[in-house]
Amino acid sequence: MKVHWQGERLSVVEGDITRFEGDAIVNAANRSLLGGGGVDGAIHRAAGPELLEACRALRARVWPDGLPVGQVAVTPGFRLAANHVIHTVGPVYARTEDRSAPLADCYRRALDVAAEQEFARLAFPAISTGVYGYPAEAAARIVSGVVRERLPDIPGLEVTLVFFSAKDAETFLTAATL
Ligand code: AR6
Fold first, then answer.
1. pLDDT digit string (tens) for 115-158?
2. Which of 15, 103, 129, 146 could staple 107 via S-S, CB 3.0–4.6 A?
């Protein structure tokens, strides 16, 4: 993974999140939790069919109606280099409604899980900025705000923000306040 920016416990990198080695990666899933395209598809392919089974079990036991937007659910990482997957569902972007709060919730709740489980290394993709259409600059301001607010209270945690292209990483860095 190519590093574009490195802070004390936060880094901005370009690469494939399925290759991240650490305690957990976050998945930009959909409410069904049963897989999809984009980063979700890549994570399921890399983790193997056990991940889908674990997601089906979560649906049956905890989230029969699907995972609500802004919520998180944890599974093992199976064949991934990361030990866990924190699945979350970002909001679909809408020009007519401010959905920054549910997008912030995805990041905040994943950070809460990392704090509770005493994770040391956690990676996020750019939730909602692909199929769900959230403008990358607006997402960058939200994400950097949440991380700046929360990371000081989770002293054992290193966070990596993973972008799929150099352009996405640089767009983030231009719009974010780090
Ligand atoms: N590693 C890192 N980032 C990636 C990877 C990867 N392997 N693959 C894609 N991205 P998206 P969303 C980037 O569409 O907008 C799925 O079908 C991608 O370039 O994956 O939250 C789900 O099942 C983009 O910047 O997620 C849902 O139905 C970012 O990941 C829906 O898409 C997010 O793009 C969720 O849409």
1. 999 999 999 999 999 999 999 999 999 999 999 999 999 999 99
2. 146
Model confidence pTM above 0.70: yes
Going by C-beta distance under 8 Å and a sequence separation of 6 or more, which residues neighbour residue 64? none
* Spatial separation of the C-alpha atoms in residues 122 and 105, rounded to whole Å: 16
Query: In Å, what is the CA distance from 2 to each residue of 16, 39, 158, 166, 171?
Result: 10, 18, 16, 9, 15
**Which of 128, 160, 164, 168 has most ligand 1 atoms within 8 Å of its beta carbon, as the pocket-test mutant?**
164
Residue 152 burial (C-beta neighbours within 10 Å; 0-12, 13-18, 19+)? exposed
Q: Is the CB of 106 under 6 A from ligand 1?
A: no
Could you tell me if 151 and 115 are in contact, meaning their C-beta atoms sit under 8 angstroms apart?
no
C-alpha 136/C-alpha 38 separation (Å) is 15
User: Cβ(113) to ligand 1 under 6 A?
Assistant: no
What the block records as the tokens of 58 is 């979560």
Centre a 10 Å sphere on the Cβ of residue 156 and count the other Cβ atoms it contains: 11
Question: How would DSSP label each residue in 54-101?
Answer: HHHHHHHHT-TT-PPTT-EEEEE-TTSSEEEEEEEEPPPP-TTS--HH
